Amino acid sequence: MVEKEKDFLPENDYLMRLRSGDLDLNVRTEAVNWIWKAHVHYGFGEMSFCLSINYLDRFLSSYELPRGKSWIVQLLAVACLSLAVKMEEITVPLSVDLQVGEPKYLFEGKAIQKMELLVWRTLGWRMKAYTPCTFIDYFMRKMYLDEIPSIRSVSRSIQLIISATKGIDFLEFRPSEIAAAVAMSVSWERPQAKDIDKAMSCYSIQVQKDRVMKCLELIQDLTLVTATTTAGFAVAYAPQSPNGVLEVGCLSYKSGEGTTTVGV
């Protein structure tokens, strides 16, 4: 899995472009917050959330988004969550019903489906991505000597993963590295070098010690977010493909009392 996870990461310059302002960080922040609000509303599993953010980051790293069209980011967020839910959840609501709360825009099912298709194509149809949730069970069990960790420890590890996924600082690490660092952080109050050496030696999944250590330092400073975070933003992503794969064409959304048709 570690060998394959690199095939499901954003472009190499994605984090640098977010930090430099070349890509609008607010677009990602608003999309993530919207996805989180819908995630909490429906009580989806943590894998669905992490997977939807993986789709979002990979997509944003590959496309130059048009500016000044706020409705498109919300549409992208809906599509990413819808695709993730279809991959991971047993009970899947209609994509139009994912638009919870009081969104600024309401999109029709056809518009969401077209955006889903665009995301599929942009990601090369590679949807079964690896996230920290993929690896956390393995690393937690190793830290607990192959015994089942406590419910409290599992819950804390998931909180840390979700918090890390929401921000951008952890984009420089692979999912396996984040999971390994989270498992260490949860297992020890204040990790010591000898503890880390021992832990690294019991991992059969190969991760680089220096990178896990760097990730662990960030995790130690990470403030846990509450499970009831409600900051949701109406954001939307305007699809625009330099490769000509964009087939959204004409997308419809409702804003206020009227229905507006937007030509792309």
From TrEMBL:
Keywords: Cell cycle, Cell division, Cyclin. It comes from the Eukaryota. It holds the Pfam family Cyclin_N. Residues 33-121 form the Cyclin-like domain. Gene3D superfamilies: Cyclin-like. Residues 130-254 form the Cyclin C-terminal domain. InterPro entries: Cyclin (IPR039361), Cyclin-like_dom (IPR013763), Cyclin-like_sf (IPR036915), Cyclin_C-dom (IPR004367), Cyclin_N (IPR006671), Cyclins_cyclin-box (IPR048258). One of its GO terms (biological process) is cell division. Signal peptide: none annotated. The keyword Cell division applies. Belongs to the cyclin family. Cyclin D subfamily. This is Cyclin-D2-1. It comes from Capsicum baccatum.
